[in-house]
Structure formats: C-alpha cells, structure tokens
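Supplementary Methods, section 5.1.

A reviewer requested that the exact input to the structure prediction be made available. We therefore reproduce it here, unchanged from the version used in the analyses.
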Amino acid sequence: MNGFYEKVKNKKINYSWSREAIYRIFSENKDRCFCVIGIKKQLLMKYNRNVSLNTIYRHLDFFEANGLLVVVQNDDKKAFYCLKGVIKTNIDIELEKCSEIFKDII
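The structure derived from this sequence is encoded token-by-token as follows.
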C-alpha cells in the first residue's frame, strides 16, 4: 500500500474511499488479476458498498497511468488488471462465474 499512498500524495489528489478500497483488493490478492465486474463484486462482498463502473474504470486508469497496475487481455479482448510486478507462470483470473488459469500472461 506504500506505493499507493506515495502516488496519491505526489499527484496531490483528494482522498477517495473507493480508490483506496479498490487498490486494497489488489494488494490483498497479489497473485490474482481482476476484471471490472470482479472488482465490483469484491467491493460489494467485502465492504457492502456499491461503486459505479465509471468510478472503478477511472481509478483503474489512475493506477495504470501511475505504474501501480498493468492491464492484460485474454483472447476475447477482455481486460484484466494485475498489480505491477506480479511475475508468476500462472495467474488466477477472477471471472464472472468461474476461474481460469492463463499461463505466461506477464
């Protein structure tokens, strides 16, 4: 979480509960990638808060632009977000109804 707080402070942006909660999901699940729907579900399950898809996309763009997350796409061009620096042969990707293992994504 240190990188998160440092980036927010350096960019001089206001505190956002949803931004921190989204990043916390990634930092607590370092070996996983999430699609936007997966992030929305995690926010509902963990925090019982509904965050709009627009807000989620905006925060993900901020994380990617500041080098905190990377985006990978599967063969169907579906985007998944992972913590930068996660180097594994297999990455568990949270899908809407099931999990799949994609090999050598990063």
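The chain has four helices and five strands. These observations are discussed further in the main text.
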